[in-house]
Amino acid sequence: MADGARELRLGVNIDHVATVRNARGGVHPCPIRAAHEAVAAGAGNITAHLREDRRHIRDEDIRRLKAEVALPLNMEMAATEEMQQIAVELRPHACCLVPERRREITTEGGLDVAGSREALKAFLSPLQAAGIQVSLFIDPDADQVAAAADLGADAVELHTGAYAEAGGAARQGELERLTAAAAQADGLGLEVHAGHGLTDENVPAVAAIPEIVELNIGHFLVGQAIFDGLAATVRDMRRRMTEGRVGA
User: Fold this and answer.
1) Which domain holds residue 176?
2) At residue 174, does pLDDT exceed 90?
3) Domain containing 116 — which CATH number?
4) Is the overall model pTM greater than 0.90, yes or no?
5) Tally of CB atoms within 10 A around 223
C-alpha cells in the first residue's frame, strides 16, 4: 500500500450462508463457522443483516456473532423499533441502517435520508448513546450525503449497485458519482464505506477511491466459495482490493 494511503477493510457479509442453511432447515452450513473462516482469511469485520422477516440471519446468529467472533460486528437493519431495541441490547460495533421491503430479493436502493430527517434523527440517538457507530446506506447523491452529515451519522455506506450493474461509459459515470460522493462525505467528517454487487472483477476501481475505508461484500463471496472455498475467496478479494488501492 502506498505511503499515506488509508487502510481498506473488507467486511464479509455472511447472510447467504444462512440463506443456504434455511433452505433446508437445521444448522448446516453454519454462518458462525463462516465468520470464523473469514476472520482467518483476512476479513476486517463481519456484516450480517437481521431482516424483519428473518429470511436468512436469525436472532441467535446475531447474538453468537457478537459473542463468539473476534472481529467488529456490523449489523445491517431497518429503522424499526424492534431492530433498535435489539441493537441497543446487543451493542454491536456498528449498525448500518438500510431500507427494507418484504418483497424485495435484495436491498434495491439507498435510504432516503433527505426525506426522512426527523424520523431518523430520533432513531439514531439511542444507538449512538449505546456506543454504536451508526452508518446510513445511501445512494451516491450529494443531497443524501449532506443529509447524513446533518443528522450526525458516524458513517455512510455508498450503494454501489448501479455501478456494478452498468457497463462501458455508464459504469464510468457511476464510478465518478461514487468518487464525488466519497470525497464529499469525507470532507463532511463521515467515515466512508461502500457495498452492494461488488465482485472480483469490479472491485479494484472502487477500492481505488481513497476516501473509502471499508467495502462490504457478501453474495459474490458466498457464491464463489462454492467453487474455491470461502477462505480462498476472501483472500483473493483482499488481494484485488489491495491491488486497486495501490494502483490508484
Assistant:
1) 9-246
2) yes
3) 3.20.20.70
4) yes
5) 12
